[in-house]
Structures are given as structure tokens and as C-alpha cells.
Design brief:
- The structure holds 2 protein chains of 2 kinds.
- Chain A is mainly α.
- Chain A contains 5 helices and 2 strands.
- The longest helix of chain A has 22 residues.
- The mean pLDDT of chain A is about 85.
- In chain B, the strands form 3 sheets. A 5-stranded parallel sheet of chain B has the order 2-1-3-7-9, with helices on both faces.
- The longest helix of chain B is centred in the first third of the chain and has 15 residues.
- Chain B is built from 15 helices and 9 strands.
- Chain B is an alpha/beta fold.
- The mean pLDDT of chain B is about 85.
- Classes of the chains: A mainly alpha, B alpha/beta.
Chain lengths: ~130, ~325
Amino acid sequence: MKRLICIMAALAVLALLPGLASAYEVPKDLIIKRPDKTPQQSTWVGPVKFPHGFHAVYNSCKSCHHEESDRSLGQFLPCTQCHIKPGLDEPTGFFRAFHNSSPTSCLGCHKQKRLTKQAMPPISCTRGCHKKQ
Amino acid sequence: MSSSLRVSAKLLDRQLEGGRMSRRDFMKFCGIVAAAMGMPAAFAADVALALETKKRPSVIYMHGAECTGCTEALLRSIDPYIDTLIMEVISLDYCESIMAAAGHAAEKALEKAMKNPEGYFCTIEGAIPMKQGGVYGKVGGETMLSLFSRVAGGAKGVIAMGTCASYGGVQAAAPNPSGAVGVGEAFAAMGIKPINISGCPPNPINFIGTVVHLLTKGMPELDAVGRPKMFFGSTVHDKCQRRKHFDAGEFAPSFQSKEAREGWCLHLLGCRGPYTFNNCPTAQFNQSNWPVRAGAPCLGCSEPGFWDQYAPFNRDVLMKGEKA
């Protein structure tokens, strides 16, 4: 009986998969740019090429789009929708959105994945996200 | 005045004064603690009030698997000196490194301190060996695991002093033969959530500031890995004196180079500052200096996973597929 339930559940998930895939069509690559009103911090750090599709395969949407819920799906898309304040110390500012210890930020998540030995995402400034030529 | 001259001058002053802290020095210390806690200067008066009017809190300081470096850092605290700290600010009722008692007398002192009707704070320095029931670390014939669980279990608050006590640190580095873990992990089942004052060693001001916060305002706000946000809220990189060179793309090519001496960024020489949360650049050690300013890159010592996570040092952090 248990086996039958397992098989049925697996079949149900398989049947739903194509639907899920089409519902969550996401952009493959993105460029993250500094908002116009945020002053440039450094001379060499430019827009960051962000492989969005790659991240979407390994993480749930909510792990980065942390304000999203099933109801608000699609309402909180780019990080800069909220995180636009300038300054390194601004807790919810543009810089901190990507560089803080919480797993919703790039740096926090990359560090956590390394710590728990799930993966080896880059954390080096110049060889990771901000490639210095 | 250079830092070393300042320290010598202070030592001379102290010898002339005959030891006790002057009111001026005490208020200055309260100001430093308030500043480290991110409070306005006026908060110094509150700090002074808390330290003067309340009965000195009893602190039991346990040593686990460690190198005593954290105690050594605390002993070298200038503002205040360690004797002022333990005579006038806290009541250090048990600390193997600096207590006069030894053997059975020391054990009696511990039992007496644990029966203090007003309670006590427990500070643990060093990781706790867990393998084979914790036999790899014993104090007075009792395993550290058992002894610390008794002391920490009855405490009003537990402070994990240093990275080893916070997350395992060097003791937990591969292959970790003794199965050492941090205090939080060792006693998670007992519901003990320590305040992690991580660092190798941590800045004494972070320990003192945490004690002051517990006295004045209660439990400090902690980050995701249990560190007080007031000290571990920003990265070493954010407030670094070499930051302007990072922003300008000026990276020192070697330790011997002219650029390194001129204060260029040590990113390519293995600085872990951008992903290490601590207040080294602003608090500085003994208010004098700190590693990056002195020319040594940050090792990321206050982060969970130090040592394995960030080794090998003195080179940029490893990328996927790279070998040490």
C-alpha cells in the first residue's frame, strides 16, 4: 500500500513538472547596475554580470527575492526596487543588500554555502563578482 | 605621539599613581566602551553609573581546548588595565590562568562561585572536545564537556570568548581528532545560546562592552551567528584604513613592496577583510593598532569556519577547483 502511495505521489509530481517549469520562466543573465543616485564607491568596480538562470536552478526564488510570497509573486523583482540608499553603513542600502551576513545577500549566501560545504561559490572581490581586468 | 610612546607614557603614569585608576581615566574608559558600543558620548555616564552603583557581577571564566591567547589579549588591555577590570568592574571568581588558588582550593572556589545566590555569568574560552565522551579535555578529572555543562547550565548568561569557544576555531580544524566544537554547538540540546565574542583573539573591548551592555541594557542584539551586532555589524573591509586604495584599484603586489609599505590594499596578498565581520579597524587592539594597518592581511579569524574555510592564507581565497 505504502509503495503504491509513493508511486502515485511521484507520478503526480512528474505530471506537474512541465507546468511548474513554464510558470517559472526566468531571465538567464542579468547585469546589476548601480542606481543613478548612488555615488560611485570605487574607480574600478563596474556593473556585475549576474548569471540569474544558474542561480535559479540551485536556489528557490525566495532565497533572494525575500519579500516575495505566493500572493505577491512577481511584485518584487529587482533588488534595487527597495535597496537604493547610498552609503556603506546603510543597513538596507544598495551596498549592504549584496554584502551582508544574511543568507539573502550574495556574500552571506556564498559564505554559508562554503561553510556548510554545499558548494564553492566565489567570495573573492576581484576574481568573483567584480572581475578586475 | 606614536602608539608605543603612548603606551610607555601610560605605564609610567600608572607606576607613579600607584595602581588605582583615576576618575579621569575611569571616565575615559567609560567613554571608550560607549563608543565601541556605538553609543553617543553622553552614554559614558550611564556606563559609569552601571559600573559604579551595581554590585560587581560575578564572572566564572572557564578554559577549554585553547591557547590562552584570548586571556592574554584581555591581560594586555590598557583601558582599563586587567587588575582594574577584575577588581572594580567585574568580580572574576574563577579563572585558571590568573587565580592564585590551585588544585583542590581552585575547585572549591569554583563550587562556591557557582552557589552565588545572585547568580553569575559564565565565560568560556576554547572549544569543547566531544569525541568519546569528551575524554580529550579534562579539568580536575572531570571532562570539560561535563564541567562546562554544569557551569554554563546554571549561569545567567554565557559568553563564548574567542573563535574556538564560538565556532570551534583552530581546535576544530581538519582532521579535528578530538571532535572539538564551539559552545553553542556543544550545548545546543541544553538550550544554551552563548553570546559569541569571536576573534583570534577578540578585542578585549568587545568582551567588556558586552558585559556593560548586559548590565545596562540586558541582552545585546545578535547577528545570524550569535555575535553582538554592535561590534560585529560591519566588515573589517568597510572601515579599513587601506580601503581608499581598494576603491582606487591599488593592490600591493607583495609584502616587501614599496606599495605595501605605503598602505596599498592587501587584497591580493590574502586579506579576508571583505567577508569578515569585526570592529578591528575602529576599536583597534589596545587602542593602538591592528593587523591590516600594521601590514598583515586579515585572516578572517572572527568568522565561523576559521581556520579551514579561509586557509591557505597569504593568497586570495580559493575558488572552485583550485588547490592550495
